[in-house]
Amino acid sequence: MTTIAKGLEGVVFTESKLTFINGTEGVLTHLGIPIQEWAEKSTFEELSLALLDGELPTAEELAKFDAALKANRAIPDQLAQLIRDMPKGVHPMQALRTAVSYLGLLDPQAEEITPEARRTISVRMIAQFSTIIAAVNRTQEGQDIVAPRTDLTHAGNFLYMLSGKEPTAEQSRLFDIALVLHADHGMNASTFTAIATSSTLSDMYSCMTSAIGALKGPLHGGANEAVMDMLDEIGRPEKAEAYIIQKLDHKEKIMGVGHRVYKNFDPRSRVLRDYAEHVANKEGKSNYYQILETIEKIIVDRMGAKGIYPNVDFYSGTVYSDLGIKKEYFTPIFALARISGWCASVIEYSQNNRLLRPDAEYTGQTDQHYTDLKDRK
Ligand code: ACO
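# acetyl coenzyme *A complex -> structure
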């Protein structure tokens, strides 16, 4: 008897030294270091480098990496033109997917798959994702593309390119924390997709384009935008309870809760909730915050025993919203952070590559013969 692992749940197909998750305890570490410490003490740049190299960098290595990211922020003119020419109203994830694929056409090194080439391309893509996403936002709004600056952090420069205004140090740091929280998360669907593509010895641009496609769906990265759609649909805090109870009674899914691995609070959602709470205490509770508070309470009460708790996407939208970012850009921002995990995981897997080729239990007919078209009913 073949046992089918639906959704590949529980299937271990490789080893990795990057990320550890204990879903029962709600623990997440990168290189053995808890996510809370990365969020509190590190930066997106440092975590990206640590993931790519598998160890904490020295100050000198980090400075070199930071300089390389800054030097690679600009995107080719042809790509900027493609972004300007994109139809109005496209979803920014469609735009990102197309732009990254096109970036591969413009990179003479694109087809190289040596470890060195994969790493060099990774650094370029980590730098350029943010410029692409900001450029899509600007052009879709009918505004000029804002060129990157090299005197700002990765997070600060993205916010600057998005709005054309220099963010405050607090805004940059907050966005940096959000990027740190999303940079990697083990064998999630998009990372697995990137690895599946690389396992055929395909190039980095193909890997990242496939990963973007996988992240886009509402069961994965698209959930943060779907949470905001839900909050907008609920509208007022006093309507939240009835809305959620009705959904649960009809066995409908609530966006931003539940997780394949976590059967407890997702530690990343706790960090983001703390921020949302901090803003609420400082500036008064927004409608969004009050609705989320109500939903969280109901979910924990009614679904906690089943292991359903808020995930990282539950509070991330309110954080981005506080930064003035539109909800269509929440999933691209996820990609802007997760590119580091995708690249690092592809590089790690490539060191001991084996083609990914699972199987399916055949349940179709047997012993059939071809019937000519004219004889078919
Ligand atoms: N709301 C209500 N019930 C839920 C939810 C939810 N969000 N998630 C799971 N459940 C229930 C299911 O209805 C099912 O109940 P049943 O046993 O009575 O049929 C049970 O919990 C198991 O659910 P599955 O969907 O089989 O669990 P799976 O591990 O496949 O799902 C997933 C994980 C896809 C994330 C799911 O929880 C979900 O759809 N969540 C909403 C979308 C979301 O927030 N995605 C973001 C995930 S985090 C990330 O990718 C960054």
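# post-check
DSSP finds 16 helices and three strands in the chain.
The beta strands are 19-22, 27-30, 33-34.
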